[in-house]
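dumping the sequnces here before i forget
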Amino acid sequence: MIEVINLSKNFGRIQAVDDISFTVQKGEILGFLGPNGAGKSTSMRMITGFIPPSGGTAVVGGCDITKASLSAREKIGYLPENAPVYPEMTVFAYLRFCAEVRGFASAAATSKVDETLERCFLKKVRYQSIGTLSKGYRQRVCFAQSILHDPEYLIFDEPTDGLDPNQKHEVRQMIVEMSQRKAILLSTHILDEVEAVCTRIIIIAGGRLVADDTPANLKKSSSLHGAVSLTVLTTTPKALLARVRRIDGVQSAVLKTQTENSVEVRIFPFDPNTPIVDRIISHLRQEGFEVSTVFVEEGNLAEVFRRITLNDEAEKGTP
Amino acid sequence: MRTRESIRNTKTIFKRELAAYFESPVAYVFIIIFLLLLGFLSFNISGFFESNTADLRVFFDWHPWVYLFLIPSVAMRLWAEDRRLGTIELILTLPVTVMEAVLGKFLAAWFFIGICLALTLPILFTVAYLGGPDPGVAACGYLGSFLLSGSFLSVGIMTSSMTKSQVISFILSVVISLFLILAGFPPVLDALYGLAPLWLTNLVSQFSFLSHFYSMERGVIDLRDLVYFLSVMVFFLFVTGLIIQNRRTS
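..and the predicted 3d for all of it:
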């Protein structure tokens, strides 16, 4: 388990991270979200022991990073932001170096490196120097370095940054495959990624923790949650909207788009958790409207993210 | 308790750093310039053959001045490069202590300079062929030169740890080293004799690389000189460790 306890960091008068606490259990993939400059990387750097915290601490697998830093670092695999690598080294030499530092002796180190090259699809570039590789490969080399010693705790700072969609998919798949036996903390800007891989989300804004919940629950707090989107074949949108608004349980309805012979409307219910789709469709059918598509919205993570993080910045702006 | 791991980690970092010199053209350029410069200064400027003595004094006399400019260029990349590339974040989040990393890097660079120094041995062979130099004095000169290079290097690794710019590291390192040389440079000391009391002049010259190197060059192994060079290295490496420990931000 990774336990972050009242972690804080200030650079001079700037409070980069302000008293954040959370935990990551084994089997969990925790998504660490926040706008640029919110303190994500600084937090991860403290958890991995790169920079000392100004206050609080992180305990990784029972080892306090401020007191038993070496034992904690042994248990962590870390992919720093921008995936730094030594450009003049070959992929093999670089991973071999990491394996030796991680305590694998000569033969064991080589087999460990081979195994990792295989897992990360790097066999082809084994003897190429890292500087000659594309950004995607470089990212993967650094990723390989972090999982080489099969650590229980993985910390990824924007693992898919700069990758193409296929590579992103590959990396996500690797992360999900590993997640059963490990506790994973990953930061990202890509909300689709969070929905695809994370079991829980924390959001940080202005150095403070502003949300800690599952993706599904966060989406429920979206104003779009439970809203019904309909495409109806009609040329009289006003009549349609007026009719819809009179249906029991409907709070409001708005026109989304309009084409020559169809309109798309979004209907917001009073209570997002009571199903109203059936009622709407039967009412419309009675009136002779033809419904071509129906979609019940789960909620939009981007909207929730914007609301939470912008609120916080507004609060901070007022003295 | 951790001795074995410490030795292993230092060795691993040593190997990587040494390989890094030879993976880029830097090592070869450095070796060639080092040898050409020392050869040119000893043979053309000082007249190695004209002096008609079977020793290496004129050769070793140039070492501090060649080191002054060349060693900072070997040392400047040691930490500054890691800072610039961001790999310092990788190194310091591996289960390696700061001191192991500092020592591994330092020893790699020192070993590299040792290789360069070994490549000057043909000069010794030439003298041995032409006359009969005292082997003890020659060995002592090489030992002194190697210790001197380590001292310059420890200054260089310290300045390298302070910045991500290799140029700044180079300049700072040359300035500090120049000060440590000049404190014992005879013209400077002569000027100082007239101005300051004798004890102060002696104290200043005790801090200089030159006074300690000159006595070793003459073939005298004095425990005080060995202690001096070793403590200079320990001091600057320790300061390097403190700087890395406290400035772990990129």
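Chain B has one domain: 3-246.
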